[in-house]
Description:
By secondary structure, the protein is of the alpha/beta class. It has a single domain (6-213), classed as Uracil-DNA Glycosylase, subunit E. The chain has helices at residues 6-15, 44-49, 56-67, 109-114, 116-126, 136-143, 149-152, 188-191, 195-213; strands at 21-22, 36-39, 76-79, 84-92, 98-104, 131-134, 157-159, 162-165, 170-173, 178-183. The chain has a 5-stranded mixed sheet with strand order 3-2-6-10-7, with helices on both faces. The radius of gyration is 17 Å and the shape is globular. The relative contact order is 0.17. Bound molecules: uracil. Uracil binds at residues 39-43, 46, 52-53, 57, 79.
Amino acid sequence: MYRISDELVELGLKRIEGFPVEGFVKGSGPFNPAIMLVGEAPGENEVETGIPFTGRAGKELMTSLASVGLSREDVYITSAVRSRPYKWGMKKARNGEMIERKYNRAPTKKEIIAHAPILDTEIRDVNPPLIVTLGNVGLQRLIGPQAKVTELHGVLMETPILRWDEEAGAFIETEETYHVFPTFHPASVFYNPPVRQLKDADWRTLGDILKIKR
Ligand code: URA
């Protein structure tokens, strides 16, 4: 198992201090994974279990992995941000009373920058043969804000990726190229059911790519 260092966790916690986020979920997977999955940020479930993709989206993702003959143990799972971004909202309790609770939200650019050194280190150390981005947040973190999952999904790219340069205060393209395969975030099928067909087709394509690579 590859694990990020305690120093890097400390740095991540320090850099994201003051933002409305909670918890810290380390990426996890073997040293030589078949693929690296890059999601958005942990949600409520993941902060509770300490394991990425253990909620409803995780179940969906595990089904996709199984469809290409892979399981959680074969892949490295991480995301752009490693703490749970939340916002406060109201929810009606069973007794009809309105109660305040935390809801998941997408990470902001500043939060993505705060945790950029973590993802950069994971990619450098694990050096995966193929990076599969799940949704726009992971895709744009690595390719840039112009990249859209609806346009790029299901196609294997060989491309430089973005790495955070602290001195420049900017994301800079790598000299090396990486194999990147964008697809939809597994949770997208819950709020946009027609995406399921596209997502499943992407995973069939990915299965074919992995067969060739093996
Ligand atoms: N979404 C993500 O991007 N990561 C998780 O761990 C869970 C949901």
